[in-house]
Fold E3 ubiquitin-protein ligase RMND5A.
Amino acid sequence: MEGCLNTEKDVDKLIAKFESYKKQTHQTFEQLTQHIEKLQNELNVQDASTGLSASHRQLVTQTNKKLKSVGQKISGQHKDLHSSVSRIGKTIDRNFDAECGSINMHEILADHTHHSLFNRAICEHFYRQGSVSVAESIATDGNLEIDDKWRFPFIEMNEILENLQNRVVDPALMWSIRNKVQLQKEKSNLEFKLHRLKFIELIKLGPSHQHLAVAYAKKFQQFAPVQCQEIQQLMGCFLYVKRGLTESPYCDLLSEKMWNDICSDFLRDACRVTGLSVNSPLISSFSAGCQALPALLAIKSVIEQRQCSGALSNNDELPIDIDLDSCQHYHSVFACPILRQQTTVKNPPLRLVCGHVISRDALTKLVSGSKVKCPYCPVEQSPNDAKELHF
Ligand SMILES: [Zn+2]
């Protein structure tokens, strides 16, 4: 981050220099043009047959000299600008590690399956963002088989979001009614919130539309068991139809936040219902990578010094732990207290009868005959009674 700030500072300085150079040059050219035009006018009134007078000749020579010196000055400034631009390159070299690419693990993407998964992640990212044509080009170039069933939820989600951003509620409402059962399972109140927005819009139209608001209010009946308090609030709005909600105790219902919230609520619920993560996996991996990069570069230099280059590339685990922000933690991990290793799919955590948890490899090592003694309590038990745990 510090590197970015340093570079930004230098770039800002350069931009300021460019601006002042541009302004100065423009002024100089203006003055020169005026000067030459004046000279031209004076020469034009002169009788051509008599030739130039001595004073005019001197004037032309002076102008020539001036032009030359201005030209030299401008080219000097131009050279100075050039060197400032090349200094930015040096700032970038100084603040960033040019060797970032060297920690790429090319072997990982050499595998066809991994490569197509990677392309799929990029493709999904663009579908998520609503850049359908970009996503489709990537799918074609990467020979990805994208069926409509897979891409449809992204396209639909984007269309609905776009509508919500333009304060058009109906597509989202239709979607939430269609997915009512799943949304209820997720304890989502999206449908209620969408109806509430439509209701408020009707209230805002004033007494002439009050009958429509009353008719719409009947839709809230179905939500009464869960949203009772919110519905009471909405009914209170009827008292302020004439005076307007702005000065009422319910003015919060008019806030911009309601619309921003509904967009994020819809995105979250739509992702849950369709089984997608709320954040783009590509962005999540990228930001995790950015955080891990300094540590990875440090490991790389240590590995190079100790000449054990295989440690980084031949392993699907990093040789050290790299701490990421808590928002990057997606599931808890379990490290075996006996072997001091993180458990994996092949070596899962097992719960012993006594309640203590160790990894399968540790259990195998501890078995003697058909019995195993818990290394903590130590209760003797059959290794077959241990149960696999899933975090
Ligand atoms: Zn035990």
The chain has a mean pLDDT of 86. The first helix runs from residue 2 to 45. The radius of gyration is 36 Å. DSSP finds 15 helices and five strands in the chain.
